[in-house]
Design a protein that fits this description.
Layout lengths: L17 H7 L4 H7 L1 E5 L4 E3 L8 E6 L1 E7 L5 E8 L3 E2 L2 H4 L8 E4 L3 E6 L1 H10 L3 H25 L2 H16 L11 H8 L3 H13 L3 E3 L4 E3 L2 H8 L10
Antiparallel strand pairs: 1-8, 2-7, 3-6, 3-8, 4-5, 4-7, 9-10
Helix pairs in contact: 1-5, 6-7, 6-8, 6-9, 7-8
């Protein structure tokens, strides 16, 4: 059983966006924006590869990315999806000698604000509170990882798959969007279940009229119904 404090919307708990973390750290957002380099990526572009030398820290200003890892068997697994307001690559600032721990791929038109080590060091001298911002970003990442671990330990596989659909729809679903542009293998690796389990759960949900599985994406037809089956609260009381 899921611990009482984690019942309900564990899968939909989110951290404050980086714009809010900047304010909480006592920084002026304009300072960070003017110090950053704006970068643009098209859908499918690789921001960086796993194993690349540590480069810049990215703050997502628009769009979303998939975070992918190479498994011990050599397969590529999607472990997370991040959207506008989230960050990635902060390890480059924490340890400039490290290598990239994952591959990051743009899922749609992506705009990021990037900060390399030299720029961040200069910011430290003129705006010491930028260290507090970085600490809050790392803390936010740890909190997110802890929630994912709790789900993997306490939430049944079928519910994890449905919760993942709700989360992805919230992150990626916009008016006129083609639904969730991820494969069943992506969803399997994100939820820690087998592809056959995902196939079975999606098949049952489609038969029940909750979703429509397309060739290149998944459409949520009845999100309230999916939430009920996933053990989540209704959207108006969600933590995300």
């Amino acid at each position: 059983m899921l611990p009482d404090m984690w019942e309900g919307d564990v899968a939909t708990i989110s951290s404050p966006p980086w714009t809010q973390l900047i304010t909480m750290a006592g920084l002026d957002e304009t300072v960070l924006r003017t110090s950053s380099r704006r970068r643009w990526f098209a859908r499918g572009d690789i921001v960086f590869h796993e194993g690349d030398p540590a480069g810049a820290f990215h703050l997502i200003d628009r769009g979303s990315v998939a975070v992918k890892l190479t498994t011990m068997r050599g397969d590529v697994a999607t472990i997370d999806v991040l959207h506008a307001g989230e960050t990635f690559g902060e390890q480059a600032i924490v340890d400039a000698s490290s290598a990239r721990s994952a591959t990051v791929v743009a899922l749609d038109k992506l705009e990021t604000l990037s900060l390399d080590v030299a720029t961040f060091e200069a910011l430290r001298e003129s705006h010491p509170r930028v260290d507090r911002f970085l600490l809050m970003v790392v803390s936010s990442r740890l909190r997110s990882t802890s929630h994912q671990l709790l789900e993997a330990l306490y939430v049944p596989a079928e519910e994890r798959v449905l919760r993942c659909l709700v989360r992805l729809s919230t992150l990626l679903g916009t008016e006129g969007s083609p639904g969730i542009p991820l494969t069943q293998s992506d969803i399997a690796s994100m939820t820690g279940v087998t592809r056959s389990t995902v196939n079975r759960v999606l098949g049952q949900a489609q038969t029940a009229g909750l979703i429509a599985v397309r060739r290149s994406h998944i459409d949520l037809l009845d999100e309230p119904g999916i939430r009920r089956k996933a053990g989540l609260r209704s959207a108006d009381t969600s933590g995300r």
